[in-house]
Structures are given as C-alpha cells and as structure tokens.
Amino acid sequence: MSFATIILAAGKGTRMKSALPKPLHRVGGKPMLAWVLDSSFAAGSERQIVITPKDSDTIEGFLADFRDKRGLDVRRAVQDPPKGTGHAVDCAKDALDDYSGIVVVAFADTPLVYADTYSRLAQALTTNDDAAVACLGFTTDDPTGYGRFVQDNDGGLLRIVEEKHATDAEKAINFVNAGIMALRVPEVFDLLDAVPYQDTSGEKYLTDCIAVARANGRQVLALEAEEVEVMGINDRRHLAEAEAVLQTRLRGAAMDAGASLIAPETVFLHHDTVIEPDVIIEPHVVIGPGVHLGEGSEIKSFSHLEGTITGACCVIGPYARLRPGTRLGEGVKIGNFVETKNTTMGDLAKANHLSYVGDAEVGSRANIGAGTITCNYDGVNKHKTAIGDGAFIGSNTALVAPVTIGERAIIGAGSTITRNVGDDDLALARGEMKTITGGAARLRQRQKKS
C-alpha cells in the first residue's frame, strides 16, 4: 500500500544546546530526519512533506542533498510562526493539494520507529472505512507527563487526556500517546478547520482532531508500539539513549546474519556497516561509515575502521586504524598499530606492525616490514607509492612518493627510497656502518674523568 507522510521538524530543539538543528543530529551516524524519511519510504510512503521553521537553510540543504541522492518525492513546507502540531499539519495542505489518501504524521526527532509501524498505522485506516484517525500509543510503567488513551469497551479511542486535565482514574492509565497518527486527506484538513486555537498557548493541537472526528460519528483507532521504539529525542541524554538502542539493534542484526561479536556491548557499528557471515569481531572495536567486512575476516580488539572494504579471511589489528579508501584483497593481514589510507592491498599482502601505508597500491603477497612509512605528502600534494607483487620492504623503511617498487624486489631495512626499484632488484639506501674497536670502553673512561 502507499501513503503520504508529514514529518514535523519545526521545533527549536533548544535543549540540545547546539547550532545544528535537532533533526540533523545523528544516531548510528545518520541524521534523525533521514531515519524517519527512510523508514516511512520503506513502509510505502510515496510523498514526504517535511515541516520546517523559517530560515532553516541547513535542513533545506540536507533535504536537497537527500532528494538528489535518493530520487524521492520529498517536499518542504514552512511553519512560521510555530503554533502547535495541528497548525504544523495545516502547513502541509498546499503540498497535498493534489493528493487523496492516507497521511501519516511523524516526528523528525523520533528516529527509532520501524517501517512496519508506519505501514500498520496506514493499513489500519485502509481496512476500516469508518475510521478517520489511527493513533499510536505505548504501554509504560511510568505514564507521568504523557497524554492518556481513554478507550471504549471495544478498544476504540474516545479521547487523549493530558495529565493536567486527567482525573485520578485517568492518571492510572498506562497506555499513553506516542504522538504519531494516521489520518485521511483531505478529511484531516476539514477536521483541523473545526479545531480551535487554545486561548492560553495560542496553539492548535493535532490530537484535538480526535474529539471532532468522534463528534462527526467517525471512529478513532488505537494501535500500540514498544515504548523504546517511539522514544523522542529532546536533549543529549536522550540522543545517547537512542544510540544505545540502535547499537543493540545493529549488533543483533549482525549476529543474526552470522557474525560473532565476542563482547557485543563494546562494539560500535555504523548504520551502513556490512558484515558477512563468519566474521569475528573482538571487544572494543569501532566501525565508522562505509565499511564492508568480507566473509571469515577477524577484527581484533581496539581497531577503528571507516571507508574500508575487505576481502574474505582478512585479519585486522589489534590497534589497527583503517581510514577511508582502504581496499583489501583476500587474506590480507593488517597488524597492531598499522594505519592505512586510500590504499589497495592485494591478496595475502601483510603489514603486521607499526607502519603507515597511505596513497598506495600494494601487490599480492607483498610484505611491509615494521616501521615502514609511505611518505605520500610533500607539503602541497599527495603522491602515490606502488609496491609490486611479492615485494619485501625491510623494517624502518621510508618510501618517498612518487615511487614504484618492482615485483619481488627487496628493500633493505632502514632505507630511504627516493627512486624507482625494478623487478627482482635489491635496494639499500643507508649510511655505511662504522665500528671503532674498543671505542665504547674508551668513551666510558673519558666520561668518568669528566
């Protein structure tokens, strides 16, 4: 089925104490607004209208980029000044002028809602022509501060009572309002026309549509979601709580797909992380954006990966740092305190310890010795290092790019290589060793006398 979505994103978000608009704060590396757009689209939303405040250039820039990348029908409507949730939905009227059907009203600061929940709301109205509104609620042990769902004997929603207006019996109700609703277009705008602005606040509330619909003889449905799913984000503490929930979901999905997380609570994933079966991730690993781990690979403790694609059966870490542009073939080994960036390594290549390999192409079965550095930056430009198949780079080598090391070449330890080395060549570039017989003893004698 298909429906439209109105996403309310016009709140000031002052409790975030941030120059960044609240809807663009990230959970799992992805803006909250993007979570809502993606989830509603996955549920069947064919048109999405985002309600923003005046002068929200940052959000508009995000939406323009989102439209370009996804090719979705995402529109913007401005609420100026903000006068409540009902007024916010009214602001979407022009964007829905040519639309007839179900509309789901969602919130940009509620990023954990599943696509299935949006589709259940829309489906509830689709299958019940007598219902004008479907409201989403949740059951909680502590309903303090929430609007209570007052229902009839058949489970229909009679009204939502805010706590300050609730009787003692109504305050005892623990089925409360999550705020997300499904309504019909154009009927919703007729309902809103009959909703007055509050005398005290000057605002029009969307929930007041329920009383109007009931007065018109229409049904109002109540659907339930899990409390954690409809968590709203108002401040940095809530943001951290949402991150914890999402990380639990991501870890669970990875393990369900065949990965082993030795201590899941210590592993942090990104929303776009791809983990193939039989990957093993040890404790205290952080995975940033754009990571794809090949089947059977092992990520050892305290490693940090982003922008990296590995082949099968790679071994990474411990304490490895793989930066964007890293592409590893099958069976590659990246050891402790090795950093890679914008580097391709062929099958079975190794860089086992204490090296920096940046802007490089490393051939299959090449061995990068401890302390090797590709000197890729001259202060102005980046340059490339190419290391051929089967080459051996001795410890403490500096490869001054641009430079090419041929296949099966050997570079002696401690060398500074500034010119190309051919296939099967041996290259050394270091000062000649000098030994002074008995010199150490004589030096100690002089030191004692002084």
What does this structure look like?
With 450 residues, the chain is of the alpha/beta class. It folds into two domains: 3-230, Spore Coat Polysaccharide Biosynthesis Protein SpsA, Chain A (Alpha-Beta Complex); 236-427, Hexapeptide repeat proteins (UDP N-Acetylglucosamine Acyltransferase, domain 1, 3 Solenoid). It is 21% helix and 30% strand. The strands form seven sheets. The protein has a ten-stranded parallel beta sheet with strand order 12-14-17-20-23-25-27-30-33-35, with helices on one face. Strands 15, 18, 19, 21, 22, 24, 26, 29 and 32 form a nine-stranded parallel beta sheet that branches. A seven-stranded mixed beta sheet has the order 5-4-1-6-10-7-11. Strand 2 (26-27) and strand 3 form a beta hairpin. Helix 1 packs across helix 4 (115-126). The chain is elongated and about 105 Å long. The mean pLDDT is 96.
CATH fold description of the largest domain:
Spore Coat Polysaccharide Biosynthesis Protein SpsA, Chain A
CATH architecture of the largest domain: Alpha-Beta Complex
pLDDT averaged over residues: 96
Name the CATH homologous superfamily of the largest domain: Spore Coat Polysaccharide Biosynthesis Protein SpsA, Chain A
**Cα radius of gyration in angstroms:** 31 Å
In DSSP terms, counting alpha (H) and pi (I) runs of 4 or more, how many helices?
A: 9
Low-confidence stretches: none
Give the end-to-end Cα distance, rounded to a whole number of Å: 92 Å
Number of strand segments: 35
Structural class, from secondary structure content? alpha/beta
Give the helix level as a range of percent.
10-25%
Strand line-up of the largest beta sheet: 12-14-17-20-23-25-27-30-33-35
